[in-house]
From TrEMBL:
The lineage of its organism: Bacteria, Pseudomonadati, Pseudomonadota, Alphaproteobacteria, Hyphomicrobiales. Pfam families: DHquinase_II. SUPFAM superfamilies: Type II 3-dehydroquinate dehydratase. Catalyzes a trans-dehydration via an enolate intermediate. Belongs to the type-II 3-dehydroquinase family. This is 3-dehydroquinate dehydratase.
């Protein structure tokens, strides 16, 4: 099984960007952790990041052919993008939404997510470890779907 881990805008600056909120780990660290936990659980992780909404939509379309699960941190597009929601609605396999910070204890505009309605589950506030939880959970969901 191949899963996509898709990251939205500004997450390329992880580790440098507001470390009091997002921590000191870089996106490269997160990528390596996801690939490793994927391997441990029999999943091939394709890890990507873009600042462009169109690129993220194209990757979701691509996942229709090439992936059996999507873990996505849409970053700010979480709160704005009907287009990403519509793209995710074309994907017939599990979707898990991840946020590094606890969006619910932050500004009110971060409390609503367009993506949560199509997600099997949502992880927020566990720092970058949330990605590891998401990949582990994805492995469980895919194993259950295969039986
Ligand atoms: C985020 C939370 C979003 O509100 C914010 O725009 C981000 C990152 C998180 O991982 O905590 O860029 O998705």
């Amino acid at each position: 099984n191949t899963i996509y881990v898709i990251n939205g805008p500004n997450l390329n600056l992880l580790g440098k960007r507001q470390p009091h909120i997002y921590g000191h780990e870089t996106l490269e660290d997160v990528k390596n952790a996801c690939i490793q936990v994927g391997l441990d659980n029999g999943l091939d992780v394709t890890f990507m990041q873009s600042n462009a909404e169109a690129q993220i939509i194209d990757w979701i379309h691509d996942a229709r052919e090439n992936a059996t699960g999507i873990v996505i941190n849409p970053a700010a597009f979480t709160h704005t993008s009907v287009a990403i929601l519509d793209a995710l609605n074309t994907f017939d396999h599990p979707i898990i939404e991840v946020h590094i910070s606890n969006v619910h204890k932050r500004e009110p505009f971060r409390h609503h997510s367009y993506v949560s309605g199509v997600a099997s589950g949502v992880i927020a506030g566990f720092g970058t470890q949330g990605y590891v939880f998401a990949v582990q959970r994805m492995a469980q969901l895919l194993a259950a779907a295969a039986t």
